[in-house]
Amino acid sequence: MMDVAQDLAESTSDVTSNPKYSKFTESKCESISWESCYYCPCLKFACISDFVKHLRERHCTREGGSFVCRYGFNGVCPSLPLDGVSDRDYDAHVNKYHVNQNSRGMPPEWSVFSAAQNLPAVLNDPLRGKQVNLFTKKWGADFVEKSHIPPSTYLPDITYHDFEKYISKIGKRYRRHDHFTMQQNLHREGESLTCNGIVSTSPTHGVSLVAVPEIFLKESLNLQNASTFSQVFPGIMEKSNGEERRKTGRVVQEKLSHYLDIVEVKIAQQVSQKSASFFHAMTSQDAIMTEMQEAARRVQALRAALQMLHKSVVIDTFRVLCFAKRRQNFEDVLDKLCLMATVHKTQPMLQLLLGTQDYVAALDLIGTTQEILTQELNGVHCFKHLPMQLVEMEKLIDKMLTSEFVKYVTGDLNRPLSDMLKETDSTCAEEDKLVCIVMGLLRKKNFSFVDTYKEEAINSIRAIIKQQIIEFISTSEREICLTGTGEEALDLSIAEWISLLGKLTVALLIILERVQAVTYIMEQTTAAAGGSNHGNQSIGVNNEKAVNLIDSEAFLTESDRACVAQKLSELMNVVCQYCHRRCANLVAPQSLEKATATVEEICRLSSLVEEFSVACEDICGIAAVPLKMALKDQAIKFANRFHSERKHKLRLLLDTERWRKVDIPNEFQKLIDFIEENDISELTVKRSSTSFLSGATSYWHYEDATEMPPASPLLLVESVPYTLVGTALLLVQMLCEYCRYGQLLPIVAGYLSRNVVDLLRTFNSRSCQLVIGIGAISVAGLQRISSANLALLSRALHLILWLLPKIKAHFESLDPTSVAGYEIVENDYRGHIKELEDKIHTVVYEHVASELNTWDARPPIPSQSFRQISRHLVALHKTIAPILPEKQMQTIYSIVHRNFKDKLREKLLELGIVKNGGPQQGVVTSELTFYMETLRTLKALPVEELDDDILENIWEFNSCQ
Asked: Boundaries of each Vacuolar protein sorting-associated protein 54 C-terminal domain copy (predicted)?
């Protein structure tokens, strides 16, 4: 590689040293002067001024007030600063460096030697990363780092022992072949010398270079070194005699001559052996020279063709390009002048746009003008004060937009409420003006206008509430003072209070619709400013009411548009929540607690709140939580008062109850029939003012009192007769009232359902205390608790159990989470009924046991004990038969009959009477026959238990004992 570079350098130096080449370059340099241009060779100049003018027009650029010379390679003058100079300095520069130079060199022409590359880029391997020690390495075999290649796992490990068999086989053949080859070479050399006529007569013929000492073959043979000198001239300095030194010198000289002869003989042998290669190289050199002459001739012809092409085609083409460039420059200057004229008209145009309230166009014009002044008209002195004026104008527009927005919002929200009837297309006044203002604020990225509108809307709502209260008080004849917030001082009646709330909700809905309309316009304007159409999907506004938006390009980013949209959404939520809180503050005062509100008033209040909440939810899409909670609090207070009154009334009725059956009014029978055929929730549409049982609400009435049917002693429920006490009828009426109020007031349906459970538990526990716990003897003045009292209470509990699933289903349809305690109440009632039946069994068993204890199996028959037992059974039947149904009565008598048999078996076992056919067995059989005849007469037992199996069962049991 170094040899090739050296050859190229030598050939280049030979060419440049050629006198023909030097003469050509000198003539070329002498012909180039100010009469021609390096880069425009087709142009010739008659004088220096033309050349200077050409440089100023074609090879000079003006940047601001500075001139930059471009007369140089790649359009850069090496003698002029890059920042440029003034006009005078530019002329001095041209005269000094481009006109008055006696000799100017040719611009560098590109050749293969002009190609260059960065050394690190050539030497660094991009696949191997950065090399730290690149410039510290030495060129050679170790320049490229050797990478360790791991042995392949697919190749076996080859050792020397694997080749022992091959070496032992081939070794003999190779040595024989080597011996023959050596003999042939020696023979061939002898023949060649004999053929060439060379006869070796030199004593050094056949002597090898081994006879020459090694020191003479080294490159570093320095006789100035003492050790080297002593090896070349051994012992010459040790001789003290001059004659001996001369003899030694002659011997050394002969040795050196002998060594020189050996080397010359070897060189002659090498030259004789390589003579054929030398003559071949000379022949090749002649062929190469012939080819080079042919190549030079072709290159000369090609250059002549290119020069002709340059004169005929390139010069004219470049001239056309120069003219096109000059025309483009003229057009650029004209455009620049037109742009300056347009910028000069910016202020009058701004005044015109502000007069038409086109704030966005005015702000766009300011921004565009500022951009033009910064980029295209930079350095123009006539516009040096215009940027500051535009900034002040922009601040003025910002203040104007803010004041106009506040003025518009105040006027729109404080319009008279009667104007709502005159508004047809939109509830927003001067829609176009609002769009212009909002678009301008968005263009200024002044997003605080949403908060400003929120504050104005809240202030307007506060003023509307105060105004409505003042107008309502002015129409009232009572003297009412106001608090500082404009609310009444708790002196209004419930009817006036509800009427005030109704008017207030209407006024607030009008304000909310106005806020919604303005918010909708602002949303559409924001969407248009952001380049989307999301504004047409505003909540609660028909998409048919399209907003007339101004034509403007999108200038809001997606993040800014989302920020404004979120603020507008929060605006509606905050305003609606504020309305709910203010109305809730009106619902919350204690004036409702001072008076007793009827259910109609609570229902009217609930309907007002529900209508207002639904309207607000349609507007803003959120539920009215504060107002509904205030309504629920008032409804719960009403429900608490209602429940406490009914609970107290039930306690009074139970304490004064004599536990005697009463006649069933026809209205109550109709009520039960209606509940049986229909849902209990439909009672709300079948109510009237007819009195029922101490002024209770009736559910059916007749126009003529003579048409009313008489009262019935029994109540038929699904064809099952019920004999009841008056408290049970009132309890059913109370339960129906709870269901009706739950239907009218769904907001407290769950609370009323839990109150029903509490009322039923109260009735169950108190009736158990009075009847089973014989509390009625001391409270109501009863002499004793009879079986009739127990049976009447049992029938009342059965009636409640029949009604309980219907009540549960009714409240479950209103509030599924409020029926958790009905199963427990049902189990308590069934347990209470079982205790009542057990109490009847206990009373009868005590009478039967006392009579059997005194009985003895002896005549007369029937005995007095069995006669008393029959009387007790007949009295029990006479007492409970008109009250209890036949099936329940038979169940009671079956248990009494079983207890009788058990007691009789104990007595027979005690008396020792067995089934032996004796007289005592006959007495027992006669007594049991009398007992069974009594039961058959009463028909108190099922038919299958009225046979004579008792005669056999008694004795079988006795024998088993």
From this structure: 721-846
Whole-number pLDDT of residue 535: 43
Residues 6 or more apart whose Cβ sits within 8 Å of residue 198:
272
pTM of the model: 0.53
**288 and 407 part of one domain:** no
Looking at residue 935, its pLDDT comes to: 82
Q: Residue 688 to residues 128, 645, 703, 728, 834: CA-CA distances in angstroms?
A: 102, 21, 11, 21, 38
Q: Which residue has the tokens 């927005």?
A: 405
Q: Hey, CA dihedral for 862, 866, 872, 874, is it positive or negative? A: negative
344 in the same domain as 402: no
Band the pLDDT of 26: cuts 50, 70, 90. Answer: very low
- Partnered with residue 488 across adjacent β-strands are 482
Please report the DSSP string for 712-726 in residue order.
BSSEEETTEEE---H
Contact 654, 771 (CB under 8 A): no
| DSSP state at residue 79 | T
Cβ-in-10-Å burial (0-12, 13-18, 19+) of 511 comes to buried
- Of 492 and 892, the structure prediction assigns the larger pLDDT to 892
Q: Using an 8 Å Cβ cutoff, are 714 and 883 in contact? A: no
Q: Please tell me what DSSP assigns to residue 36.
A: B
In the chain, what are the helix, strand and coil shares in percent, each to the nearest 5?
70, 5, 30
Helices (H), ranges, 815-942? 822-853, 864-880, 886-911, 919-938
Neighbour tally for 521: CB within 10 Å: 24
Tokens of 667: 């209205």
> Would 880 be classed as within a structural domain?
yes
Give 709's DSSP letter.
P
DSSP 8-state assignment for residue 356: T
What's the domain range around 509?
Answer: 392-479+488-534+554-620
Token pair in block for residue 757: 């459970």
Is it the case that residue 708 has pLDDT exceeding 60? Answer: no
Name the band, by pLDDT with cuts 50, 70 and 90, for residue 706.
very low
Q: Are 628 and 524 in contact (CB under 8 A)?
A: no
- 748 φ, ψ to 5°? -120, 20
Instruction: Classify 783 as helix, strand or coil.
Output: coil
CB 617 within 8 A of CB 573: no
Task: Name the residue with tokens 């570093």.
Answer: 220
Same-domain pairing of 829 and 883: no
pLDDT at 961: 42
Cα angle vertex 116, ends 114, 120, to 5°? 165
